[in-house]
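Morning F.,

Quick status update on the modeling queue. The single chain you submitted on Monday has been processed. Sequence for confirmation:
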Amino acid sequence: MELIIASSNPFKIRELRTVAQELLPSLTIRSLIDFPNFEPLNPEGESFEQNASQKAVHAARLLQKPCVADDSGLVVLALGGCAESLRRKKQQPAGKMLPDTKRLLNDMSAFDEAGREAFLECAIAFATPESGLIKTVSARMEGVIAPAERGPATFDFASIFIKHEYGKTMAQLSPDVQKRISHRRKAFEKLVASLRQLVYPFQLENRLYNEPTPRDKGDEKGSCIRDTGPFSTPLSRERSLGCKDDSPTEMGKV
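Structure tokens below.
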């Protein structure tokens, strides 16, 4: 089963692919890099959730495949919150993946520690060509803006964002720690249940329709294949082949 990450940003693709393959190893993960003729959408939402939803639905409709899309950013309350974060993203030149951290640090030079409170937010939407938008989730990582860049610059403000209780910018933390506390990972984890409903019924129904039943193999007793696994669904249970009610009879009844 394929799942498309509706992004051409190699940093996002790498992180989301790593998480998806860890949590749902049966999925085949692709991205917009695999579809060079795809025409991306410039979302016009008023929140990260709206933007992610628009991108996921657009990609699922054009590619005719299940898609996830993310929209994320750094929100600084003292600079106008989410609205200002989205405005700055729209002003960023097309194709530019690294944020303008120098401008942000300059805008915050007059703020004390309380005014430097901020959070990284990531919204991820899941859509299919048949049903449109399935679910949108989000997660935040709260912290403060560092007075200067520390560590290598990345697409996620890692060189200037300090998560509470860590004392270092995200860029200064080890890759394992970054992976564990990532707001993008936290958001994707909230989608796993919805993605699992897509993946496992598909596998179960293929098994039910493609595997020969014991009767096909010459079993005169006509045994059945019953789907009662941990990811069974009403549909897959209904399609269990040749099954009769084998529940125990009550005492005294024939």
